[in-house]
Amino acid sequence: MMADPDDRLIDSLYEAAADPERYDALMDAWGTLLEQELAQDDDRPPVLPERLERHFQFAEAIMARMGKDTGAPDDPMEELERDPGPAMLVSASGILIALNRAARSAFGNLAGQDISHLCMEPRSLGALRQALKMPSLNEPVSRLAGMAWDRDGDRQYLLFYCTLGDGNTSSAAGKLVAAGLNWDESTASQLGALFELTPAEMAIARGWIEGQTLAEMAEEKHRSLQTLRTQAKSLLRKTGQRSQLDLVRLIAGMALATGNRAVPERPDHGDDSMLFDLPDGRCMHVAFAGPLTGAPMVLMHGMLSGNELSLAASSALEALNLRLIMPWRPSYAESSPHTGKAAMAPYRHARDVAVLLDYLGHDGAIIAGQASGFMYAACFAGLYPHKVRKLVGIASGVPIATKAQIRDMPPRQRFVAYTARHLPKILPVLLKAGIAQIASNGIDSFIDALYPEGTIDGAVSRRADIRDIMRRAYRATTRQGHAGFEIEMWHAVRDWSDLLVGCKVPFTLIHGQRDGVVRIDHVRDLCERTEGANLIEIPASGQLVLHDDPVRVLSLIMADGTEAITMEGPAASQVHAVTQKPVS
């Protein structure tokens, strides 16, 4: 059993639960206890003292009550802008306080106007005014507010009124969320599967959504009106709805729940990001960089690295004619939350990326992973080898199979990795406390603890331009809280080398020799025992090699082989390649 903790750890645990600035003190105290376990040679999991486990449980409950479960800002105005569909903040007196971009496009810039400026039926408008006057409850509540037309009178929306709860400190009483009454294929597929509808019943549902009557549908399809009435009754019976309006509300509500609030349009790939609708109703946030006609390269992000690029990296993409496609995994940025078992996360994301590439019209692409993202890249290569032109890892993580590998990490990463491997019940508390520090003014302290002064990565992370990039990336990756990180750590501290063995696709790892998180000797060992591995070592770089020297890294990726790499100046002597035997 682990040694009984001293009062310093207990005190710092509760202090960190209430004050994000105390996160460093908590990690120091927790680390002191863990170092005793790490010093032991055996790899047996420790047993947490019951008293300490109860304290962690109490601290986690405090964090949940105080809203430390998420890294997202609590400001309703900021949340409004992140909403992918039309949404509006409204006061108790019925004044529209603010509208997000989608709402302004649909209804016009009505900020400061009364809700009567929305094209709603008088009965719905009156019911909404009554709802606004109701006292706020402890928990947010959603209710149907009625129908509204867009400003051109061409499209109808179903409005839902959502209260903000008693933690709301803004002048808004609640939020109006609009679900477009359009036929969305992903929502339609869920409707058909859920209620076992026939193609004829699905056609009637679509016709109603698009505003057709049964008589119009009968004429269009050259069917008898009586046949369509029979099918319509069957449709309502199967879905449990009493009327056409109830069914329309059901479909709009399903679209709202799955995030499909607008007509899906093929995006202009000149934009730097998009929300991509997946077949099962989830959405995937995807960022882009580089020339539109460049060679496609999928870059899978690390746990905290995100998809932020420096100006030097953006210039290198243009020079190399390389187009980056950067999908956010579930529970990161604005992608839908992860559901299901953690073990299946890499496979599900691989399938999502395959659908995305098909949608974008790419038969194949360079598949790259940064840090922990390389495991996801390897999984993709195993499932879809025909879509992989190259498989690359940048400062990639390696499978962790021993306590010795954890001991070689820097202190902060070492303590989190050991907790994830042996004490996973404790991990959420550490993750939530760390995310709370990021969400507060302590983000620089968080970064400095990961990359201390006196290290190559510490110097890179303290460059003004790189620090700004890291701040944005950390805030984006933690926006949805700790769930994504918990899944990442579940995989990171396990031996996932079977993904490399099973993929049968040669791969190249580009790794800094001074990476303090994933030591170069562990990377060499992986390459020496894995068929088809090629290692390119960069002596003067660490884990932040892509930020430190993006031109070199991207040039190495685009080169046909290590013998074809051309560099000028000192960099030419700073690349060391070790090529292993090819895949048989």
UniProtKB/TrEMBL annotation:
<dbReference type="GO" id="GO:0006355">
    <property type="term" value="P:regulation of DNA-templated transcription"/>
</dbReference>
<dbReference type="GO" id="GO:0003677">
    <property type="term" value="F:DNA binding"/>
</dbReference>
<dbReference type="InterPro" id="IPR000792">
    <property type="entry name" value="Tscrpt_reg_LuxR_C"/>
</dbReference>
<dbReference type="InterPro" id="IPR050471">
    <property type="entry name" value="AB_hydrolase"/>
</dbReference>
<dbReference type="InterPro" id="IPR036388">
    <property type="entry name" value="WH-like_DNA-bd_sf"/>
</dbReference>
<feature type="domain" description="HTH luxR-type">
    <location>
        <begin position="194"/>
        <end position="251"/>
    </location>
</feature>
<dbReference type="Pfam" id="PF00561">
    <property type="entry name" value="Abhydrolase_1"/>
</dbReference>
<protein>
    <recommendedName>
        <fullName>HTH luxR-type domain-containing protein</fullName>
    </recommendedName>
</protein>
<dbReference type="InterPro" id="IPR016032">
    <property type="entry name" value="Sig_transdc_resp-reg_C-effctor"/>
</dbReference>
<dbReference type="InterPro" id="IPR000073">
    <property type="entry name" value="AB_hydrolase_1"/>
</dbReference>
<dbReference type="InterPro" id="IPR029058">
    <property type="entry name" value="AB_hydrolase_fold"/>
</dbReference>
